[in-house]
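Side project, low priority. Logging it here so it doesn't get lost.
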Amino acid sequence: MKCLILAAGKGSRLSQKGSSKPLIHLLGIPLIERTIRSASEAGIDEFFVVSGYHGEQLRRYLDGLAGRCSLKITHVINQQWEQGNGLSVLAAKDQLDEPFVLLMADHLFEPSILRDLAARTPHDGEISLAVDHDTANPLVDLDDVTRVRSENGRLIEIGKGLETFNGFDTGVFLCTPAIFDAVQKSIAERADSSLSGAVRSLAAEGHVNDFDVGGRFWCDTDTPRDLQNAENALLDRLRGKSRDGPVSRYLNRPLSVRISRQLARVAITPNQISVVSFLLCLVAAWLFSLPGPMTLALGGLIAQFASIIDGCDGEIARLKFLKSDFGGWFDAVLDRYADAMLVFGLTWHAHSAGPLHDVLVSLIGDRAGAVVLIVGFLALTGSFMNSYTADKYDKLMEAKFSQGRSIRLGRDVRVLLIAVGAVCNLALAPLIVLAILMNLETVRRVVVCYRHEKH
């Protein structure tokens, strides 16, 4: 499906942030690119972008984006950009003769909104508008938002000054070519060249469908405060990932999101972050292998910091539209190597010295070293099997995770156990806990999945 994006306006309220509003960065990505990438994730494959104010600068950037992302972007120029955004719509009339998506360059939205909207093609002569019926949405500026009133799935009225309303215009439309006639009619009858004027004309005829976004994320970015709110909202959406374990949810994620806020502004890729986390784990494992409580404790702190950083790669991938199957797989491979190094380093330390090691020596003598090696082996095996069984089990339990009805024991728990044990100068204790906990958890997962298959 084709997509028309309006990006011709001046955006004077954000002029201190940049000379071209669509190119103002939000967490390292220009607004126009966020709009295009979100639409692309929703299945849009061809874009028509209307430019006006500082249009040449915008068109150069879009040409580069099209090349980098293998997108088809056609430029539409509106020389009358100061006279109403309806004229920007009208500028594309000759290039769009079938249903198309209409978006605003400065509106952010969850791709699923557009995906679901695009699946409901309106009848000839109609358009559909994605409407937010949450009139208490904290991201909405009531003094600036375009309000709507709708009944029985049909838009009745639209405008910024509506006193009686039950929703907000999200700036996400699914249009038929009827929108072009509506713009011309609005101009001819009311001298109103705005897009809202065209929608008002269609609504008066009962030709505007109300598509409820159902509480999903969207926001407008007209002012510096809007930009800050949008940034906070995007970062907040990284929290509470359904498959996060308790350590990730309550300790790692709040910290990693703060780090990702800064990393998003620099040229670093998720894969590079994965490598940094892995190297930190290697340093921690090397410190574990050295004698003395201080190096052990330092290694534990570095291991936990690496676990926090390990969350940043996925966060940056989502924030900057850099998600890839290879990236997820590459991160998982490095995590398994890191786990092996951490457990091996801790086993090496426990085999050499430590309070529990001394107790074992006093109890069983020379066999203490063999016991430590067996515990280390079971800890490593349990950790690997815990990771190996995660994919099938996580998919099965995802709904319960998201509702908080089940706790996920994964890598975040393993690394924290290692870190706490190391800081407390107890190398063998976390290995014993890991050997028992991870293997029991693996057995439990197998039983849960088996019972599910039987039913």
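Brief comment: The first helix runs from residue 31 to 41.
Revisit when time allows.
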